[in-house]
Design goal:
about 600 residues; 5 strands; about 75% helix; elongated
C-alpha cells in the first residue's frame, strides 16, 4: 500500500502522521539502491513519532530502521530495533519479514543458533501466509547461515529448495540469486567447473532482467572462479567487465572487489607492478568504506608483492601493518597468512630464529582456525539434528492416540538416524576432509595420551613432522587443484608405506605428523628415510608431467620433554634443520 499517494493529494498541510507515512513509503522505495538515504528518512520518521506521540506508527518505522541499518552493516542497532518491533506484537506479515531480517543480522553477528531459530519462525509464518517470495528470501538466509558454519551440504540443500521455489513462481530475480549462491557453495568446496556453470546461468538471468548490480557481482565471481581455474585471460575479462559495471553504477564495494580480483590474476601472471597498483586502488576504496576485514586481506597481498619484488623492508612494513588491521578486524585468515609471509621475509634477511618463530605462529593459528571450522560444523550438525528431533517428537505426540505403533516405529527410526548422525559427527571431528587421514585436533588428543603412557611405562615415543618441500611453488606453478592432489596422494602414500602405523595426521597446511609408539628415534628416522625415498621416487606425472615432489622430515623422541607439546616443538626444530639443509632429507635427535 502506498501511503504517500493517499495523503499527499490533500491541499492542506500534511499532519505529522501523514509525514511519517510518507517518509516510510519513500524510504522503502529507495532502500535497495540507497540504504543510507532510507535510514535518514526512517530516523526523521522516528523523531516525528516521538515528538507527536504516534505510538501506532512505530512498527513500520522500526521495520525501516532495522532493514536499512542491516544493509549498512549497523548490526547491533538493527538487532535492537527489530527486537523492539517484535516485542510490540506486529501482524503476522510484518513479524515474518522482521524475523527474516533479524536472522540476517544475527548471522552477520555470528549468533548462528539464534539466526536459525528466527529463520525457522519466519519460514513457518511465510508458509502460513502463503508468501512464497518471503519464503525464498528466508531459505536463502538460512542457507547462508549453514554456509557460515561450513555445513556446505546443508546450505546446498536449502539453496536448491529456494531455486525450485523461485522457478515455480517464475521469479527470475530470486532464481538468479539462488544460482549465484549455489555457485558460491561449489566455489568454496573447490568444485570450480560446477561453480562456473552455475555463475554463467545466473549471469544470463541477470542480463535478461536488467539487474546490472547483480550482473556486476556475478561477473566478478566468474572472474575469481576463472582465476582459481588458472584461466587467466577469462579471469581478466570478467573482472574487468565487473569493474566497468561497478564504476558505472558507482558501487564502490563491487569496484574494490573487482580490483582485488584483477590484482590476484596479474600477480599470478608475474606482473607485479600492475598487481601492486590495482591492490593500492582497492585498498583506498576499502578504507573509504571502513571495511577493515578486506583491508587486511589487501595489505597481505601487497606484502606478498613486495616479497616477490625482493623489497624485504617494504614487505615487512606492509605485513606488520596487515597484522595490526587483521587483529583489530578479527580477520583470522589474514592474521594467519601474515605470519607465513613474515617467516619468508626473516628467512631472506638471514634472521632464522625470527623466521622459525613466525613459522610456528603460522602453524598454531592454522590449527586454531581448523578447530574453529570443526566446531562450527559440529554446531551446524547439532542444530540441524535438534531441529529435526523436535519436529519428530511433535509428530509423535500428535499421532500417539491415533497410530501408536506407527509412532513407535518413527521413534525407533529417529534413534537409528541419531546413532548414524553421531557416528558421522565423530568421524568428521577427527578426520581431515581433504586427505581423509586424522586431523591435528585428534593427533594432539592421542599424542597427549600416548605421551603420558610412555612416561609411566618407560618406553620410547618418537614423533615425525613432515613438510612438503616448496609447496607454495607447486600451487603457484601447477594450480591449487594440483596442490590438493599432491596432499591427497602424499597422505595415501604414507598409509600405503606404513600400514602398521596407526596415527598419521595432517598437522596443518602442507605439514603432516606421524607418531611411533615404543620406537627409538633412530629406528623411527630409518622408517622416515624409507618414506622420504618413496615420495621422491613416486611417479607424479598423473598430476603434471613436470611435477616432482620431495619432503623434509624432523624426528625426535625428546626423552627429557615435560609434555607432548614440547616433544612436537623439538621435532619441529629438527624439521627446520632439514629445510635449512636444502630440504629433501631426514634430521633427527633426542
Amino acid at each position: 500500500m502506498n501511503h504517500a499517494a493517499t495523503h499527499l493529494t490533500s491541499s492542506a498541510a500534511p499532519t505529522a502522521a501523514e509525514r511519517v507515512l510518507t517518509l516510510v513509503d519513500l524510504g522503502s522505495e529507495v532502500l535497495r539502491i540507497n540504504p543510507s538515504q532510507a535510514l535518514d528518512m526512517a530516523t526523521q520518521a522516528a523523531q516525528l513519532c516521538q515528538e507527536h506521540g504516534l505510538a501506532r506508527l512505530r512498527l513500520p518505522v522500526l521495520s525501516l530502521l532495522g532493514e536499512s541499518q542491516y544493509r549498512l552493516g549497523q548490526y547491533l542497532e538493527a538487532r535492537a530495533n527489530l527486537n523492539t518491533l517484535l516485542s510490540l506484537g506486529p501482524d503476522q506479515s510484518l513479524a515474518a519479514k522482521s524475523l527474516c531480517t533479524l536472522g540476517h543480522v544475527q548471522r552477520m553477528l555470528g549468533e548462528y543458533r539464534s539466526a536459525i531459530q528466527h529463520y525457522n519462525q519466519a519460514l513457518e509464518l511465510a508458509h502460513r501466509l502463503q508468501d512464497s517470495n518471503l519464503e525464498v528470501a528466508t531459505l536463502n538466509g538460512l542457507a547462508g547461515t549453514y554456509f557460515s558454519l561450513f555445513d556446505y551440504q546443508g546450505a546446498a540443500e536449502l539453496y536448491l529448495h529456494s531455486l525450485g521455489l523461485a522457478q515455480s513462481l517464475g521469479n527470475l530475480e530470486a532464481e538468479g540469486a539462488a544460482l549465484g549462491n549455489l555457485g558460491a557453495v561449489y566455489l568454496e568446496q573447490g568444485e570450480l567447473s560446477r561453480a562456473q556453470e552455475l555463475f554463467q546461468k545466473g549471469l544470463e538471468i541477470c542480463i535478461r532482467v536488467g539487474n546490472q548490480q547483480r550482473e556486476a557481482v556475478v561477473r566478478n565471481n566468474l572472474g575469481f572462479t576463472y582465476y582459481r581455474l588458472d584461466s587467466y585471460q577469462s579471469s581478466l575479462e570478467y573482472s574487468q567487465q565487473a569493474l566497468q559495471l561497478a564504476q558505472k553504477l558507482r558501487d564502490r564495494r563491487i569496484e574494490a572487489s573487482a580490483l582485488g580480483n584483477l590484482a590476484l590474476t596479474y600477480f599470478a601472471l608475474g606482473q607485479y607492478d600492475t598487481a601492486l597498483e590495482l591492490n593500492k586502488r582497492a585498498l583506498e576504496l576499502e578504507r573509504e568504506l571502513h571495511n577493515r576485514h578486506t583491508e587486511a586481506d589487501l595489505l597481505v597481498q601487497i606484502g606478498r608483492i613486495w616479497l616477490e619484488k625482493r623489497n624485504y623492508e617494504m614487505a615487512q612494513n606492509t605485513l606488520e601493518e596487515a597484522l595490526q588491521v587483521a587483529q583489530s578486524a578479527g580477520n583470522r585468515k589474514a592474521h594467519t597468512e601474515v605470519h607465513l609471509y613474515l617467516s619468508e621475509v626473516w628467512q631472506h634477511k638471514g634472521q632464522f630464529a625470527l623466521a622459525l618463530q613466525q613459522h610456528r605462529l603460522y602453524h598454531e593459528l592454522t590449527a586454531a582456525n581448523l578447530r574453529e571450522q570443526l566446531e562450527r560444523k559440529t554446531l551446524a550438525l547439532l542444530i540441524r539434528f535438534q531441529a529435526e528431533q523436535a519436529l519428530q517428537q511433535a509428530e509423535i505426540v500428535r499421532l500417539r492416540n491415533v497410530e501408536l505403533v506407527a509412532a513407535n516405529e518413527a521413534l525407533e527410526q529417529a534413534n537409528r538416524e541419531k546413532s548414524q548422525l553421531l557416528a558421522q559427527l565423530e568421524q568428521m571431528v577427527r578426520t581431515d576432509p581433504l586427505t581423509q587421514i586424522y586431523n591435528r585436533r585428534y593427533l594432539e588428543e592421542q599424542l597427549e595420551r600416548l605421551f603420558e603412557q610412555s612416561r609411566a611405562e618407560q618406553w620410547p615415543l618418537s614423533v615425525a613432522l613432515i613438510d612438503l618441500d616448496h609447496f607454495k611453488a607447486i600451487n603457484d606453478t601447477y594450480s591449487h587443484q594440483a596442490g590438493d592432489e599432491v596432499l591427497k596422494t602424499t597422505a595415501a602414500l604414507f598409509k600405503e608405506t606404513l600400514p602398521e602405523v596407526e596415527l598419521i595426521a595432517r598437522y596443518g597446511g602442507e605439514e603432516f605428523a606421524i607418531v611411533f609408539p615404543q620406537t627409538p628415534v633412530a629406528e623411527a628416522a630409518a622408517v622416515c628415510e624409507r618414506l622420504r625415498q618413496r615420495i621422491e621416487t613416486h611417479d607424479w606425472s598423473f598430476i603434471h608431467p613436470d611435477l616432482a615432489v620431495t619432503v623434509s622430515i624432523g624426528v625426535s623422541d625428546a626423552p627429557s620433554a615435560p609434555n607432548h607439546e614440547k616433544l612436537l616443538m623439538v621435532a619441529d626444530q629438527y624439521l627446520y634443520d632439514a629445510k635449512r639443509k636444502r630440504r629433501n632429507q631426514v634430521c633427527f635427535g633426542s
